[in-house]
Amino acid sequence: QVQLVESGGGSLQAGGSLRLSCSVSGLTVRNFCMGWFRQAPGKEREGVATSSRTGTTSYSDSVKGRFTISRDNAANTLYLEMNSLKPEDSGMYYCATRASVWCPLEESEFGYWGQGTQVTVSS
Q1: For the chain, which has fewer Cβ within 10 Å, the N-terminal or C-terminal residue?
Q2: Within 13 Å and on the Cβ side, how many CA atoms surround 11?
Q3: How far is CA 85 from CA 2, 27, 119, in A?
Q4: What is the pLDDT of residue 108?
């Protein structure tokens, strides 16, 4: 059974930093496209960052230069380092996996999802 469990969310002021973790069981992270998505209240879920199994990373324009996605294949864990946080970064953050080499920021075909961790950034 595949499980993804996010952690590391919290409430903080603008300008601060957080590190999200996604612990994965039931599949080997090194073999999958992994991604972080977020959803703010009243908005659609959007792609934040992805990490392909070949090491390629992609970021949405809104987080580029501030967020870093990484993975620890030995620990089967995905991370999202978030710096210079802004109120508009607030939302529920989800990690997800996709069984393909292509690793886009689109959520279609991401088959396994975690339950999310909340990030709230105040001004």
Answers
A1: N
A2: 2
A3: 31, 31, 10
A4: 86
**Average pLDDT value for residue range 30-59:** 95
Q: Tokens 């930093």 belong to which residue? A: 17
CB–CB of 54/75 below 8 Å?
Answer: no
Give me the DSSP letters along 41-66: TTS--EEEEEE-TTS-EEE-TTTTTT
What does the pLDDT read at residue 18?
Answer: 98
> Residue 47 pairs with which residues in a beta bridge?
37
> What residues form DSSP beta bridges with 50?
35, 58
CA distance 91 to 77: 21
Q: Per-residue pLDDT for 21 more than 90?
A: yes
107 SS3 class: coil
Length of the chain: 123
Local structure of 23: helix, strand or coil: strand
